[in-house]
Amino acid sequence: MLNEREAESCYLGQFIPLHYHHNMLMDNNRMQAFKAAINHAVFPGAKVLELGGGTGVLSWFAAAKAEKVWCVEFNPDMVNEANRLLAQNPQGHKVEVVHADAFEYLPPEPVDVVICEMIHVAMLREKLLEVIDNFKQRYLAKFGAPLPIFMPEAIVMAVQPMQQEYIFEGYNAPIVQFQETNAIYTGSVPMAEPAVYSIIDFVAPIDLTISWQGSFTMATDGNLNALRFITKNILSVVQQQNATIDWLNHYMVLPLPASLAVKAGDIIDVSFRYRGGAAIASLQNGLQATIRVPETLARAEEALFA
């Protein structure tokens, strides 16, 4: 019998089917970004912990330099798969796959780097924020300062108003859409530039509640019926070059509760609030977008009804 948190983890995608993990191995953008970031952050002789290790590939990247790597995975099927794959790769013996809950596990000794790729666009579904926040408190209680380096080091999230096509072979279906960042979608028309709504620095205290109120000036006429959420993961900061190693999640396009006919120059007020790690519906249910009434028109209406 699953307890409440385990049941929620299953529902929110923590026990992702095996083929999804295999697909992640074939995601060149993800693989190359993490390989470069881990190669930069992990130094010879380092101790590394990965929380939510999946196939073990990121732990294996770390093992190229690290003295020891602990790869923590809660799904028993993935534990077996990680052990199977690591056994077929050089340096795989340096990775110890631990069948444990990332919310509870602490390494037997202090570590230098913590990798956690429980990342979903907008920090939904996956439990990265909660896992790292919980880990930091338990780690400091056991080992004291300093904290290890976290990967990703920071998350930058932005939102963009969109006109989105929802007709599929004549069938109207306003659904959540995930889009590759390097592809062109003719049915997706940006209505304004994106706005950053949250920056999460994992060194600082983590607020699990994410909320934003802001406005956009429409760049074109059209039908505003969606918001596109953009998540940039700053995997590692390369201070010597004043640069970062980044990885973008797929864009997530969410339908608005009601579409708005807009003209260029219209100001749209947008607000939302959700908890990091919650279901996508928690963000959808709180989305609000309204056309701001010009002050001159508002004053005229007030005078009319005075």
From TrEMBL:
CDD domains: AdoMet_MTases. GO terms for molecular function: histone methyltransferase activity; protein-arginine N-methyltransferase activity. The keyword Protein transport does not apply. The keyword Phosphoprotein does not apply. GO terms for biological process: methylation. It holds the Pfam family Methyltransf_25. Keywords: Methyltransferase, Transferase. Residues 48-133 form the Methyltransferase domain. InterPro entries: Arg_MeTrfase (IPR025799), Methyltransf_25 (IPR041698), SAM-dependent_MTases_sf (IPR029063). This is Methyltransferase domain-containing protein. It comes from Undibacterium piscinae.
